[in-house]
Amino acid sequence: MKDKVNVLFVCGYGVGSSAISESIVKKALAADGINAEVKHTAVGEMGSQSDWTDIIAISKKLAEGASFPADAHVIEVVNIMDGKGIAASIGKIVDEFYPEARKN
């Protein structure tokens, strides 16, 4: 039973789009009542975060060439500025797999 979900945003170098998405989505998750810790990283460092990560958000283009743990919940992001849309996708996973992480 997890009362907090760990979300990892992944981009090519871990400094640009993943950092922007992290900031935007963090606010949207809080507004949706989802207790989440959010981090960002480069695609090459993603594996080192696998023990911590519950949900991976990654651009559709990067996801095509990446490998994920078998039990990973992966969201392929088309628009990194769509904080509410990404948060809604995370919310669906939370409701199904981590319902204790929703505060309302």
Name its key features.
alpha/beta; PTS_EIIB_2; protein-N(PI)-phosphohistidine-sugar phosphotransferase activity; PTS system ascorbate-specific IIB component; PTS_EIIB_2/3
Indicate the overall shape. Answer: globular
* Main β sheet profile: 4 strands, parallel
Helical content band: 25-40%
Radius of gyration using CA atoms only: 12 Å
Unreliable residue stretches: none
What pattern of helices and strands is seen along the backbone?
EHEEHEH
Span between N and C termini? 16 Å
Q: What number is the mean pLDDT? A: 90
Strand content: 15-25%
Q: In order across it, which strands form the biggest sheet?
A: 2-1-3-4
The SS-based structural class is alpha/beta
Number of strands: 4
- Helix tally equals 3
Would you kindly provide a written description of the structure presented here, covering whatever features stand out?
By secondary structure, the chain is an alpha/beta fold. The protein has a domain at 9-66. The chain is 35% helix and 23% strand. It has a four-stranded parallel β-sheet. Helix 1 packs across helix 3 (83-97). It is globular. The two termini are 16 Å apart. The relative contact order is 0.26.
Describe the SSE topology.
Elements: E1 5-11, H1 17-31, E2 36-42, E3 55-59, H2 60-65, E4 73-77, H3 83-97
Parallel strand pairs: 1-2, 1-3, 3-4
